[in-house]
Design brief:
Length: 375
């Protein structure tokens, strides 16, 4: 009898243990704090796909963030925020983990040196994190090449940096922004895009910031790299077909980490009957450097040359570029003797970017000419 009661007790205890063990869920065994952490981790891992690259989109405004009724020329640039840009292209989530930051929201004619420095520092900071694989900057097309070249010279990273814009506002029929943005994210997440410096992606083409320029006021195929060529194409897949021969990004000598301003560099344009007073006015207004968009191979009229030489004598660095839109400006003759430097193949607006950065390091004309030959 005693043994029977003892066996029954053991059976009852065993049943109780089994029952309580089964009914207790794993969560019930955790403290509320642990439970919250578990949920957070699992919800994060549900939305984040670990095998996809992590891309940050830094938005600055422009037509890609513009709105109109249906017009492609009358619209307000820089009104749509970065979250709306991302929401408009949900397909991006299949190719990358994307998130956005609004740096500024302006038409690109209002991008100034302060914004360049802010953007450059932010891109550098983000890329220094092991959690970020690439950066996309959305930007107005008017001065896009200047910002792209600035990043090309100042961000010390070999991770992809892609600058993108659009020629039609987000509300236009057949807006080009969504597909350009999708392609930009695709390129920024591509392993093959590493080490190529800052890239510009529009209209299914990949261009180097060093070589590309805007060539047409309104057409969607406005960004061209006539002389040097595009470096790649996007036809669903990415096809790279050219290498960059100029120094950039992690091989660049220019650093902005401790800068809060850039030296004033102005651009003057050469034309028939121009005068030397243009140079005097720039010097008086505080220019430390002047880029001259000369005719042909960076030529100056006699009057302009007098003004340029006067500026050089006052310690201002003068660089000859060209208004032709393409080709190399060579160092030759009296121009060299008078320390009028040559922009090599940089157009005036990009020569200004390089000259600003060069002047943060030196005012030696020979050294600055070397920079123009190397970058
Ligand atoms: N005006 C515009 C801008 O540069 C043009 C564009 O984005 O295409 O912001």
């Amino acid at each position: 009898m005693k043994t029977q009661r003892f066996l029954l007790l053991i059976l009852f205890t065993a049943l109780l243990l089994v029952f309580t063990g089964c009914s207790q869920s794993p969560e019930a065994k955790e403290s509320p704090k642990e439970k919250a952490q578990t949920q957070k981790v699992s919800s994060a891992s549900a939305s984040k796909k670990n095998d996809l690259p992590t891309i940050k989109i830094l938005a600055t405004g422009g037509t890609i963030a513009g709105k109109s009724k249906t017009s492609t020329t009358e619209y307000k640039a820089g009104v749509v925020g970065v979250e709306s840009l991302i929401e408009a292209v949900p397909e991006m989530k299949d190719i990358a983990n994307v998130s956005g930051e609004q740096v500024v929201n302006v038409g690109s004619t209002n991008i100034d040196n302060k914004t360049l420095l802010k953007l450059g520092k932010r891109v550098s900071k983000l890329l220094s994190s092991k959690d970020v694989n690439g950066i996309v900057v959305t930007h107005g097309t008017d001065t896009l090449e200047e910002t792209a070249y600035f990043l090309n010279l100042t961000v010390k990273s070999d991770k992809p940096i892609v600058v993108v814009g659009s020629m039609r506002p987000s509300t236009a029929i057949s807006a080009d922004g969504p597909s350009n943005l999708y392609n930009a994210v695709k390129v920024a997440g591509a392993h093959e895009a590493k080490g190529k410096g800052t890239l510009v992606v529009l209209n299914d083409r990949i261009a180097s910031a060093r070589y590309v320029t805007k060539t047409n006021t309104t057409a969607t195929d406005t960004f061209k790299s006539e002389e040097m060529g595009y470096i790649g194409t996007i036809a669903d897949d990415i096809y790279f077909h050219n290498e960059i021969t100029r120094k950039h990004t992690k091989d660049s000598e220019f650093s902005i980490s401790s800068l809060d301003k850039l030296p004033q560099v102005d651009i003057l344009y050469g034309y028939q009957n121009d005068g030397s007073y243009l140079f005097d006015a720039a010097v008086k207004a505080g220019a430390k450097g002047i880029v001259f968009a000369g005719s042909g191979n960076g030529s100056l009229s006699d009057a302009a040359e007098k003004g340029a030489v006067r500026a050089v004598k006052k310690g201002v660095t003068v660089v000859r570029s060209t208004r032709t839109g393409d080709g190399v400006v060579t160092s030759n003759g009296d121009y060299v003797k008078n320390d009028l430097l040559a922009s090599n193949s940089l157009n005036p607006q990009k020569a200004r970017i390089l000259l600003m950065l060069a002047l943060t390091k030196t005012d030696d004309p020979r050294k600055i000419q070397d920079y123009f030959n190397e970058y």
